[in-house]
Amino acid sequence: MSVLISGATGFIAQHIVNDLLKQNYKVIGTVRSQEKADKLKKQFGNNPNLTLELVADIAAPNAFDHVLEKHGADVKVVLHTASPFFVNSTEYEKDLLTPAVNGTKSILESIKKYAADSVERVVVTSSFAAMLNLEKNGDESVVYTEESWNPATWESCQVNGTSAYCGSKKLAEAAAWEFLRENRQAVKFQLSTVNPVYVFGPQLFDEDVKDTLNTSCEFINALIHNKPEAKQMQEFRAFYIDVRDVSKAHLIAFQKKEAIGKRLLLTNGQFAYQDLEDIVNEDFPQLKGKILVGNPGSGKEAYKTMDSIDNTKTREILGYPFRSLKETVDDTAAQILKKDGNL
């Protein structure tokens, strides 16, 4: 059985590809360049079950047509992970909104054209950002669930990079559900989404540890390397999940019938930046005196003025325990220190 995954070189996507190959699926991944394709092929040991196709710009009209035209008859599952994830932008439409929304619409349109009868399940990698109401951020009376929606509109979210990113995730996910409603008679696939909070955890391949990491893991990387931004994040607090748990959820999202039509809200709880400092200082003594210490043990105080999340429904569908903050931070930090020659 073949699974198509867009954005196959992404942080989360690489873990998904790895899990799919371990379960003997044939995987067709899309990447942005031949250089990325060659690197990923090599990293996966030229596995014959991994085929890569080039999609240079997911926002371009008919971006995925050639992929589905070529492979559509064999593809039973489509995992759409490709979407921009950064907040330091002032070109909100060009960098965030248009690629996120058009990329989602484009891959679904290509399924409709070339694989309407073969694709049975589609999983869109969305985000907690699609559920978050930024205007109520930090309101301790707010409890988010799988039914929560970010109220952003195309116009309202173009205030700053953060609101534009959150808006892009909401609008892209909403576009997927709307597409299915409008095309229910034309396609056979069932839809699920995976909505993770901040995703920590190791890169799948050690060689992908760079000076600057993906947005979530950079919190830990900045702390270890005592970057100025670590001090600026001292008051930061949010929710976390491990990348390996996010990957596993993508497979269950298409393997279990209970996940059909569901939004899987992935979090294993709250964290404050102080918690990251405490874990790294305690578990990596070689960093003692070189990194921020903050006010040890004070992280839990920050939770008292946070909104909260109830993802009971998601946990029941998935049926596996999530990794602890300590495990995910330790594994992320250990890989970074190994690359530095400090472990």
TrEMBL record:
- Entry-linked InterPro entries: Epimerase_deHydtase, NAD(P)-bd_dom_sf, NAD(P)_dehydrat-like
Origin: domain of life: Eukaryota
MF terms in GO: oxidoreductase activity, acting on the CH-OH group of donors, NAD or NADP as acceptor
Q: Indicate the segments forming the NAD-dependent epimerase/dehydratase domain, all copies.
A: 3-260
UniProt-listed Pfam families: Epimerase
Q: Which UniProt keywords apply?
A: Oxidoreductase
The record's family statement is:
Belongs to the NAD(P)-dependent epimerase/dehydratase family. Dihydroflavonol-4-reductase subfamily.
- The protein's name: NAD-dependent epimerase/dehydratase domain-containing protein
Q: Which organism is it from?
A: Torulaspora globosa
